[in-house]
Amino acid sequence: MSIFAKIMIALVAILHLYIAWFGIFAWQTQGPGAFPEFPADLFLPTTAMAANQGIYNLCLAAGLIWSLLIRDGEWQRKVATGFLLFVATAGIFGAWPVSPDIALVQAGPAVIGLLLIGLSARARQR
């Protein structure tokens, strides 16, 4: 895998570590500023839901980090592709009912990572 693909995978992992931190630890304190359209009185009752979503994002980040630690190139590509597909799917699905910005922020970098993986695999075949 190219260094560019690995950098993008790392950036997506860092993004999801941040999203996990936000959902698990900062939902009530930082949430109202980040989501002004969400009624302020609902942040407390939705804390457990946000923490649960944070755990999912933590798992996505862990999978992406794991993919960077795999030494076998083929398996590294397969694992990274799988986790980037999970991220892209979640981003696209989240854009539909919640906000189109989610597709740009979450799915966009994952799709770029997938394209970079594909390009590096194609370059290696030549």
Structure characterization notes:
With 126 residues, the protein is mainly alpha-helical. It has one domain. The chain is 82% helix and 0% strand. It contains five helices and no strands. Helix 1 crosses helix 2 and helix 3 packs antiparallel against helix 4. 25% of the residues are buried. The model has no long low-confidence stretch (mean pLDDT 93).
Overall body shape? elongated
What is the number of independent domains? 1
Please state roughly what percent of the residues sit in beta strands, choosing from under 5%, 5-15%, 15-25%, 25-35%, 35-45% or over 45%.
under 5%
How many strand segments?
0
Main sheet properties: none
Distance between the termini: 14 Å
Please give a quick description of this structure.
This protein has five helices and no strands.
Task: Explain the layout of strands and helices.
Blueprint: H1 3-25, H2 27-34, H3 47-69, H4 73-95, H5 100-125
Which structural traits does this protein have?
elongated, 126 residues
